[in-house]
Amino acid sequence: MFTWAESMKEDQKRELFTECWLKAEPAVSAYVFASVSRFHDAEDVVQRIAQELARRFDEFDFNRPFVAWALWIAKSRVIDFYRAEHRTRVVFSHELLGQLADTIAAQADGRSNRREALEACLEELPPKSRRLLDLRYVEELSADEMAQETGSTSGSVRVLLSRVRTVLASCIERRLAVENA
Amino acid sequence: MSVDDGFIDRILEGAVSDEEAVEFQTWLKVPENLERFALRAELHSDLRRSLRRRQIQKNALDGGTDGLVTDAVSSREQLASPIPRSRQLLALTVTALVMAACILIAFVQPESNRDPVPAYASVASVASVVSHVSGVLTKDGSTWNDAQLPVGNYELKKGLLNLQFGGGVMVYVEAPARFDAVNEKRVVLHSGRLSANVPPQGIGFTVETPEAEVVDFGTEFSVDVEGGASEVHVFDGLVRVHPGASNWRDASRSVELQASQALRITDGATEPEDISIATDRFIRNFDEPRLNYARAVKRLSPLAYYRMPIRDRGLVSEPPEYSGVVLTGEGKRPPHAKGVFAGGSLRVGVDSSGRGGRVDSPPRLSTGRFSLTAFVYLEPPTRNASVATNLEGERGNFDVSIDENAVLKATIRSNDGAASTIARGSVLPQKTWRHVVVTVDGQYLQLYEDGKLVASTPCAAMAASDSETFWFGTDAEATRVWDGRLDEVALFNRALTEEEVAALYRTAQEEIART
């Protein structure tokens, strides 16, 4: 089968791939973060997906959306991860992984706006909330470790973190509503 | 169940019970719930990315030395305005990706050799590394990368290791194993599996275990130490076994073992016990020898032939463009085992890290005719497991597997969209190699076991498949995972005849007798 990608030079192909991947990456990351819980595991899986997409780029049918194809490959790599990792607690059924991919593909439209809004919303957060997020997302502390660090309990750390996230989610929604108004 | 943001966050962090996780999946069946969950996951993913990036940029501005980001952020103005910053990030990601792509291209080049081992100069060594397959070796707890092994305590944590001791003695160690290299002619095996091939110059090479001492007289033998017992299996020549711990050995109680004999010495037991030789257990070399069976397969012009050699380059195919990857997870032993002949096989499940094989760029199957030949070795209590398949939902056209009763079956999707299944009447035997062939000639779907036609059913020409991923020992959804080994898998775009199948099996039998 002859595809358009085959007629391109390698560097053109690479450039095109990079462009496609940059657009699809937020969706793929969201998908993997939804189905794989630890940051490092999720990031490893995303990396593997990127590698596979690059390697199989020739197979990509340009009449289809790249995100859908990327999420289709992502689903298989998430299943591979479940296969390798017996201890993972949350293991989604294959049907659900498929539906999740469809949902995330459908949410693609506002994604870059949501990312931009998040950047602005982070600036508005009180320093204490920011610190909490940093402990979790940058220093990668668990709720237990954060509780020790902040002289609290893991339960209340989780509650606080969730509240901060919900504050951010509402802030993003508000900003987008203003933009679209 | 009541699901709030806090609960969704706990799901995303994996901090829920199994029951909660199952219930949550029911909750997700409602589309609005799934949308809400997907958005929350997106927030997690974006937060991780954004906050990490901010930290890296902050470090760089604070005079940090992270060279990767100093290029991306050159001034405070950029940090103050989010738009240029995201462009910079874009540039950074592009660079990283292009690098990744370059690495990737280098990575996918077919490679036929094993890892070269750096030959550093070192202190007086008692053994040297000839080759290894994904080997991780430690000496006194630290990683050992030198090709020379001085006296010391070693642990092979992962993979396979081929060492050469004095007099040309070749030793093959399989992870996990702990051993001491004592001198050029002596190794102490505390736990694990080891095989030795001893040429005449190496006679007297000794393997000591907690339960015995094994002295070699020019031969090929294997030792397995586990759970307070040592086993010695002799494949060729002669070895002398002195039972007992090192300070309790009595020369008068020594036992001589000859080819095809095996012995178990249990800690505390007075007499060693005769056992049957385990020809399938030990990896006795890393090479895939030139065999008559392989020649016979190649004469039949397969589309792709997977000999399952012991390599860390993935699932090697002839021709190489159809090579794939060996899937691995947690597990004690390497994803390879002794094959049906002298070489290796793909080990899946049981106590290994093997999870099967995957071929992302398989050959097209478009003639409507098809054959698959393979050797399968099943360990109990496997049920519902795949030998080889490319079926996934509506895609793909073949599937060879065992059903819930361990009965071998084959399913073919035909041109007309119908699926035909054929099954053998009896259960697949366990812990023994079985030659399996499936053929589709446009009229019949046929199944052979050990060279004999065992089932046949009418079946239209096979539907064409293009780039559907092939899976060996597993399937696309990882729900039907093999427990055991697979070897010598070949695919053809024509139906092999009954005579060809019988001849292949005869060649295999001769090969087994010879090796």
What do you see in this structure?
The complex is a heterodimer of chains A (181) and B (515). Chain A has 2 domains: 4-106, Orthogonal Bundle (Rna Polymerase Sigma Factor, Chain: A), CATH 1.10.1740; 111-180, Arc Repressor Mutant, subunit A (Orthogonal Bundle), CATH 1.10.10.10. With 181 residues, chain A is an all-alpha fold. Chain A has 8 helices and no strands. Chain A is globular and about 55 Å long. The model of chain A is unreliable at 1-7 (pLDDT under 50). Helices cover 75% and strands 0% of the residues of chain A. Chain B has 515 residues and is α+β, with helices and mostly antiparallel strands. Chain B has 3 domains: 5-108, no CATH class; 127-275, Jelly Rolls (Sandwich), CATH 2.60.120; 292-514, Jelly Rolls (Sandwich), CATH 2.60.120.200. Helices cover 21% and strands 36% of the residues of chain B. Chain B is built from 8 helices and 29 strands. In chain B, the strands form 3 sheets. In chain B, strands 1, 2, 3, 4, 5, 6, 7, 8, 9, 10, 11, 12, 13 and 14 form a 14-stranded mixed beta sheet that branches. In chain B, strands 15, 17, 18, 20, 25, 26, 27 and 29 form an 8-stranded antiparallel beta sheet that branches. Chain B has a 7-stranded antiparallel beta sheet with strand order 16-19-28-21-22-23-24, with no helix packed on it. In chain B, helix 1 crosses helix 3 and helix 7 packs antiparallel against helix 8 (498-514). The longest helix of chain B is centred in the first third of the chain and has 31 residues, at 31-61. Chain B starts with a helix and ends with a helix. Classes of the chains: A mainly alpha (181), B alpha+beta (515). At the A-B interface, helix 1, helix 2, helix 3, helix 4 and helix 5 of A face helix 1, helix 2, helix 3 and helix 6 of B.
